[in-house]
Design goal:
This protein starts with a helix and ends with a strand. Strand 7, helix 7 and strand 8 form a beta-alpha-beta unit. The chain contains eight helices and 14 strands. The chain is of the alpha/beta class. It is globular, with a radius of gyration of 20 Å.
Length: 288
């Protein structure tokens, strides 16, 4: 009996060790995922890279592996779907800042805020001038920090909008109902004859984004659910809800499509199980 129990203990120990190894390995590597969408209003083909949820993660010396990969893709522009940094007091934001500074030498970057940027922005009593430092460090002609703002990319007939959700929409354990007309109050209306690209960090409100009129939504926040299980998908969202409806990949609602990034980094639980980080190479083509 004791020998059987001993074998069981060893087996469980080996299983946990193997699982931990997977978590560490998947937490320190990324893969490139290619997606292609045909969108109304787009005037010509273009390609962009989607970065979400970096959380100051570093791949190689000063993110050289990530930078090299992006330069090999050579996108027309870059979209950042929030949480470049992490809302920790006295957090060293150098990795995220340096990544954007280096990439902006060669590429136009459209950066929408995530809940971590919003937190350091709206809680100065905790974070001091961290948000001001982040914003001022990224201020240059090639970085568009979109705080409930829209800009146009005339070459492709795209209007790109960065939505900054109120922090109450990132509540734990539950989805806070979005009040009627909230998006219309926060951001400009989509332009009918253009391709409307919405950077919206929290995917939980995809139906509302579709009703607003987005053609393409890019999101993040969920980190792929930390662990990905066959048939069940992501296990745990940052909201601490299990098996979230949206955990990563492509979703459709009417004419609207959402690309939900699985993220490039992590916070709090800095492990990923069967769920490596992902960088997205996105090709857009006019819908005929």
């Amino acid at each position: 009996m004791q020998s059987v129990l001993g074998i069981a203990v060893v087996a469980v120990g080996l299983l946990l060790a193997a699982l931990l190894a997977v978590g560490i390995i998947d937490g320190n590597r990324f893969e490139v995922v290619k997606e292609e969408f045909f969108l109304s209003g787009l005037s010509q083909k273009c390609r962009f890279v989607l970065i979400s949820d970096l959380h100051n993660q570093v791949y190689g010396n000063k993110n050289e592996k990530l930078i090299h990969t992006i330069k090999n893709i050579n996108p027309d522009f870059i979209v950042v779907a929030g949480d470049l940094v992490t809302s920790e007091e006295k957090e060293d934001m150098t990795p995220g800042i340096e990544l954007i500074q280096i990439l902006s030498r060669d590429y136009k970057i459209y950066y929408g805020l995530g809940n971590h940027e919003s937190k350091i922005k709206n809680c100065p009593e905790r974070f001091g001038n961290q948000y001001h430092f982040l914003k001022s460090s990224l201020t240059n002609k090639n970085v568009c920090l979109l705080e409930n703002e829209s800009v146009e990319i005339p070459k492709y007939n795209i209007q790109i909008t960065g939505l900054e959700l109120d922090l109450k929409y990132f509540a734990h354990f539950r989805k806070c109902a979005m009040k009627q007309g909230y998006l219309q109050q926060m951001i400009a209306k989509p332009i009918k004859d253009k391709c409307n690209l919405l950077i919206a960090h929290n995917p939980d409100y995809f139906e509302e984004y579709a009703q607003w009129g987005a053609d393409l939504v890019v999101s993040g926040h969920v980190h792929g659910g930390i662990m990905k299980l066959p048939f069940l998908g992501g296990v745990l969202a940052p909201s601490l809800r299990i098996f979230p409806k949206y955990d990563g990949g492509v979703y459709k609602e009417g004419k609207t499509v959402m690309l939900l990034g699985r993220g490039l980094g992590s916070h709090t639980i800095k492990l990923r199980f069967f769920n490596p980080a992902q960088l997205y190479e996105v090709t857009l083509k006019p819908k005929l």
